[in-house]
Amino acid sequence: MSQYSFLDDYSEGCHPNILSALANTNLIQQTAYGHDEYTHEAKQLIKQHTGSEQSEVFLVAGGTLANIISLSACLRPHEAIVSANTGHIVLRETGAIEATGHKIIGVENQQGKITTEQLKQVLTDHAHVPHMVKPKLVYLSNATELGTLYSQQELTDISQFCRANNLYLFLDGARLATALTAEKNDLTLQDIAQLTDLFSMGATKNGALLGEAIVINTPSLAEDFAFHVKQRGGMLSKGRLLGIQFVELFRDNLYFELAAHANKMAKKLSDGFAEKGFAREADTDTNQVFAILPDALIEQLQEHFSFYVWCRKTPDSSVVRLVTSWATPEEKVDELLRLL
Predict the structure, then answer these.
(1) What does the pLDDT read at residue 1?
(2) Residues with Cβ < 8 Å from 28, sequence gap 6 or more?
(3) Distance (Å, rounded) from C-alpha 190 to C-alpha 95?
(4) What mean pLDDT is reported for the chain?
(5) Which of 18, 126, 276, 277 has the fewest beta carbons under 10 Å from its own?
(6) Is 70 exceeded by the pLDDT of residue 322?
(7) Is-contact 75 56, C-beta < 8 A?
(8) What is the largest CA-CA distance in the chain?
C-alpha cells in the first residue's frame, strides 16, 4: 500500500471544476489587478452569501497574507492584537504580525477559543496608559487551530464586548467552510458578517489552487484598504486567477459541499479512534482529528500514512493530527482504521 497523506487539506491541487474553468477561460483577455469580470462576479456571489451588500471584498493568495494585510491595516503603531495562545498568528506565521510592528497579547486557550472574561482581564492588565500597548483588535479562528467551533452565542458575546470596548473583531476563516458545515455549528455566514468588523474566507484549504477572500463589514476599515493589499504584495496582476476559483466555489454551493465531505471523513476517523479506545485531545467538530496514540503504534501507522505528531502527551504516547480534505477517499480512511 502506498503512503497516503493526512498531513493537511491542501495536498491535492484543486477541484476539477476549477481546473476546467481556468482552462476554458485561459485565452480570454481580461483587465488586470482584480478588475476582471470573474473577480467582480466572485465578489458579488460572496456578498450574496453573506447577505451584506455593503461589505467590501478583497481576494488575496494565502491565509498568512490575508492576516498580515487585514490586521496591519486596522491598527496604529501602538495598538495590539489579542489572540488565543494557539492562534495561527501566534504559532504558525513566523512572527509575521509582529514584523508589521504590532504586539500579540496571547491568552490561555479554552479548547482553542477565548472568552469575554479573558478579554476583560487583558484590558485590566493593559490599563497603565500610555506605558503599555493598547489592545485594539481581537483575533479569532473558526474553525480554531484545534478544530473546535465558536457557537453563535459565544461569537455574539465577544462581538458585543468588542463593540462596548471599542475593539475591532477579526475572524480568521482559513477553515471557515468546515466550521459552517460541521454538525454542531449554529452560525451562518450572515451571522459572521453582522458580528465581525472583518473576516476571511479560505479557499486554499477547500478545493482551490490558492485564494482567500477578505470581507470587510465596517466601512471605515475598507477605506484605502486596496493600498494595503498592494503594499503588502497581495494584489495579483492576474487577479482573474483568484476570481475564477471563487466563482466556481460559490456559484452552486460547491464551497460548502467540499467542506461537508472533509468533515464527514474526519468524523469517521474520529469515531473509529474512539471505538478502538483511543482518546481525543480536543473535542474536534471539523476536519482536524487530534488523537492520543502510543508511540509504538504511531511508528507503525507512519509506515503507511503521513500525519503530524503534534506534541508529546506522556513518556510513551503523543498527540497526532490527521487532516481530511475535500478530496479524501473514504477507502483511505477505512484502510487506516483497519490498521489500528
Answers:
(1) 46
(2) none
(3) 32
(4) 97
(5) 277
(6) yes
(7) no
(8) 62
Asked whether 216 and 54 are in contact (CB, 8 A), the reply is no
Q: Give the integer Cα–Cα distance in Å for 253 and 113.
A: 28
- What span, in angstroms and rounded, lies between the C-alpha atoms of 326 and 164? 39
| pLDDT exceeds cutoff 70 at 263 | yes
Which helix (DSSP H) or strand (DSSP E) does residue 219 occupy? helix 219-222
Q: What is the pLDDT of residues 174-200, one digit of tens each?
A: 999 999 999 999 999 999 999 999 999
pLDDT (tens digit per residue) in 39-87: 999 999 999 999 999 999 999 999 999 999 999 999 999 999 999 999 9
pLDDT digit string, tens, across residues 86-139: 999 999 999 999 999 999 999 999 999 999 999 999 999 999 999 999 999 999
**Judging by DSSP bridges, how do beta strands 168-172 and 134-141 pair with one another?**
parallel
Provide the sign of the torsion angle of the four alpha carbons 60, 66, 68, 70, taken in this order: positive
Of all residues in the chain, what percent are helix, strand and coil, respectively (each to 5)? Answer: 40, 20, 40
Q: Nearest-CA neighbor of 325 among 175, 184, 199, 183?
A: 175
List strand residue ranges (DSSP E) for the chain, in order.
4-5, 56-60, 79-84, 104-107, 134-141, 168-172, 198-202, 212-216, 288-294, 305-306, 308-314, 317-323
Residues contacting residue 24 through CB under 8 Å, at least 6 positions apart? none
CA 186 to each of CA 192, 193, 211, 313: distance values in angstroms, whole numbers, following the listed order:
11, 14, 25, 32
Handedness of CA 170, 62, 87, 329 (dihedral sign): positive
